[in-house]
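Q: What structure does this chain adopt?
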Amino acid sequence: MSKLLFNLPRPTVPIFTRATTDAATAASSWTAAPSEFPIHRIYCVGRNYREHAIEMGHNPDRELPFFFQKPADATVLCTPASISNVPYPMATSSLHYEAELIVAISKDGRKISVDKAMEHVYGYSLGCDLTKRDLQAEAKKMGRPWDAAKGFDSSCPLTPIIPKEEIKIGDDTQIQLEVNGAIRQSSQLAKMIYSIPEVISHLSELFYLQKGDLIMTGTPAGVGELNVGDEVSITCGELLPCKFVVGPPSSE
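A:
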């Protein structure tokens, strides 16, 4: 008999693998794997693109990486089958999008060296760090944490994870976000201030990284506001696109 007062589900992310490749078009089709990726924690690195740091009023040449977290159950799965609905959150009038490449960790470690960091990576996802910008600005001014601005319900739409062996993610990979068909963010991953191995290494100096951790690696310049009815589409290389629509506030 369980000692728990009640049971809570553990959030997971589907894993997609390459099914077939059309030799004529070099297009790939993806299929869901039998197993899923259990989420332990969601880490986010702040201001990791030079132009974004500048647009937010900071000097990217003087700042070590810093991190915050989102709850594991803040995720909203975005699959190729349909456009997901993300309700406009409560207690804000300034909801912003931030397109981000997500790294999935499958090997525990602390104080991980840069040259060993990729050994801890299982694969990649694509997501959006939704942000209550008005609450974040107030928190910054008051010197308070960002939890209410970053870690709210449904603040992390993301796609199924692709194993790293099945996809190429490099410096020349382009990450792009569109709102209602208009490009709002577009950058190569090479413009990250700290590379993926460097982010993992820095983060592991602060936390014991564990299997199931997800790391959101920062957003390019061009962040902006979302309104009810807006359709968001994020792409990054061969990763599955992250598509969602901003729905009306939840009545629950």
